[in-house]
Design brief:
Number of domains: 2
Distance between the termini: 34 Å
Oligomer: single chain
Number of strands: 21
Length: 384
């Protein structure tokens, strides 16, 4: 089965400006480079502008960062982009200048590759097996699927779902979890759990540790979920010179170094178009601007404005998994991606090998827990 799953993976290359970290800020340079990623799977979604959105996923296995969790974890990555055009597929000898130092074990393959280009800056390809016909290759199957979607007047029909197919072992684990969740932890008719995307460039210190979903029924048709995310830290980028005093203030006021953010999901079982988020004080869209990763003082939808309903744009596989994007370094978020050029970590809480712990505590229970511990003496403590 491992061979079958692996056979559906392909390579993905994209041309992008090189960025550098300057004073904690991400700055894009004028230099462009072609980056290549192996072990990728390709799926599709509909963008808000009705365009075809290509979703590329990859993954790698690492040891868990928490010393009390003795198991490996799978880091899942995602990059999504909209396209208008697919170019002809063809066979090509590899250009040595495009060699990937990070993938030498899979790069040293003799012969040619099947490859096609999307718009101007994206390529999907894979090595050409001896005697392989183009029509029998994985690359051709993806090419044909994209051609079909682009020719359709309604790409990906009218779905808001981020689709996923069992094209890799990692993708199959995610699908199995969503289709057959752990019934021991489900106390309600259905459990609403968000899938969260965060720029991987922000993950060295600001990664997510826990996701808590406190769910309750409002009536027979409506569900409210209070979602609390516990981040490892809150590394400032735009105001990095204030990070040390800000850390001390957080310890003094909240008795923790970790950053804790809460939003709500409102689900209408009769009409999915009424489903929405409430991002009080943590919405990343402010003053007409989609604020991105460099910003660290964004507090859109302030409390004094009341409960502003933000429609859910996308779901992961089904309507029980609404998608949220963490967009800024102070962890303001939204239903849309404010960092489209950056790869994201894909957190699917509840999967056995996920780096994130899934819990069901309320924000009050979490705050009460932090009030009872000393973060300076035990910085690795955790509610879950």
């Amino acid at each position: 089965m491992s061979i079958l799953m692996g056979s559906r993976e392909v390579w993905f290359s994209h041309r992008e400006n090189v960025y550098r970290i300057k004073g904690s800020r991400i700055e894009w340079t004028e230099q462009k480079k072609i980056w290549s990623w192996d072990r990728c799977t390709i799926s599709f979604a509909r963008s808000p502008k009705k365009r075809l959105r290509v979703v590329v996923r990859s993954n790698t296995i690492r040891n868990h960062t928490r010393p009390d969790v003795n198991r490996p974890m799978t880091l899942r990555f995602m990059l999504g982009f909209d396209i208008n055009k697919v170019h002809k597929i063809y066979s090509q000898s590899i250009n040595p200048s495009l060699r990937s130092v990070d993938c030498e074990d899979r790069w040293n393959v003799p012969g040619e590759r099947w490859i096609f280009r999307l718009d101007s800056d994206y390529w999907i390809w894979d090595w050409k097996a001896d005697g392989e016909y183009m029509e029998s290759s994985n690359v051709y199957q993806i090419y044909r699927e994209i051609k079909t979607h682009l020719a359709s007047p309604e790409p990906i029909a009218a779905s808001q779902l981020f689709d996923l197919k069992p094209k890799s072992i990692s993708d199959k684990m995610v699908l199995d979890h969503i289709k057959y969740p752990d019934r021991r932890i489900i106390h309600l008719h259905k459990r609403i759990i968000p899938v969260i995307y965060q720029p991987s460039a922000d993950g060295l210190k600001n990664f997510i540790r826990e996701v808590h979903c406190a769910q309750k029924n409002i009536d027979n048709n409506k569900i409210e979920v209070e979602v609390t995310i516990i981040f490892n830290n809150e590394q400032l980028r735009n105001h990095s010179n204030l990070e040390a005093p800000y850390k001390e203030i957080r310890l003094l006021l909240y008795k923790r170094e970790k950053d804790v953010e809460t939003f709500r999901i409102m689900i209408d079982n009769k009409d999915a178009s009424k489903n929405h988020f409430i991002f009080k004080d943590i919405y990343s869209y402010l003053h007409g601007i989609n604020h991105g990763l460099n910003e660290d003082d964004v507090h859109g939808d302030p409390k004094w404005m009341g409960e502003i309903k933000r429609p859910i744009s996308h779901y992961f596989m089904d309507y029980q998994h609404p998608i949220v994007f963490v967009n800024t370094s102070n962890h303001a978020m939204a239903e849309h991606d404010a960092n489209p050029r950056l790869w994201k970590w894909e957190y699917v809480p509840g999967i056995e090998d996920c780096p994130v712990t899934l819990g069901s505590m309320t924000r009050k229970q979490i705050d009460d827990y932090f009030d009872q511990v000393d973060a300076k003496k035990d910085p690795e403590f955790s509610p879950a």
